[in-house]
Amino acid sequence: MKQALLVFIGGGFGSVLRFLVGKYLNNVEAGIPYGTFIVNVLGSLLIGIILGLAAKNDTLSPNQTLFLATGFCGGFTTFSTFAYENHVFLKSGDFTSFAIYTIASFVLGFLAVFLGLYVVKTIF
Fold first, then answer.
1. Under 8 Å between Cβ of 9 and 67
2. Is residue 110 situated within a structural domain?
3. Taking the C-alpha atoms of 6, 7, 13 and 18 in order, what is their torsion angle to the nearest 10 degrees?
4. Would residue 28 count as lying in a domain?
5. How many domains in the chain?
6. From CA 116, how far away is CA 124, in angstroms rounded?
7. Which residues contact residue 76 at a Cβ distance below 8 angstroms, ignoring those fewer than 6 apart?
8. What is the value of pTM for the model shown?
9. CB 9 within 8 A of CB 69
């Protein structure tokens, strides 16, 4: 039960922060939903750092890892919003934005995870 509460609280913090970032950075006129893009790439970097710290010398406890990685990062990042925004691009015929947003999100997301793990490996 304690673990579910940790995920619940961490997810709440992450979701509220994602909402605030999206509120200020997602702009319909700009085309690309920068808020969602930023939280997904930043969340990927954070989860790389968090899981890197957890794996390295048990820097984080299992409960801290659950709160931060599963809870906070799970609430902060959003695949469902990403999928919907891509649906909107396709429905409107904006294939260029669809391609740029999708490819950049996947590539930078993966690179951010690897960067987070690398940072922990070299600095901590």
1. yes
2. yes
3. 170
4. no
5. 1
6. 11
7. 14, 15, 17, 18, 39, 42, 43, 46
8. 0.91
9. no
